[in-house]
Amino acid sequence: MADDKRGTERESQRPISTGPNARPRDETIDQAGGGEPDDSSRAVEIIPEEEKAIADRILNR
Fold it and tell me: Where is there biased composition of kind Basic and acidic residues (predicted)?
């Protein structure tokens, strides 16, 4: 009976993740999830001319 308990404890301590980053399977990896974003990067700065050029390419103008 003691062996059964140890086996269960071992299984409960097993990580619930796979892969090189070892993230939990039930957690998001990006800002697509709810709550506050975990990214502290700066906002992308773009000049108006570049913004127009990108929009023209996207809209095939």
Answer: 1-13
Burial of 40 (0-12, 13-18, 19+ CB in 10 A): exposed
Q: What would the two tokens of residue 51 be?
A: 């913004």
Can you give the pTM of this predicted structure?
Answer: 0.33
pLDDT at position 44? 83
Nearest-angstrom CA–CA distance, 31 and 39 = 8
Nearest to 26 by CA among 39, 15, 37, 36: 15
Residue type, 45: E
Residue appearing with tokens 């062996």: 3
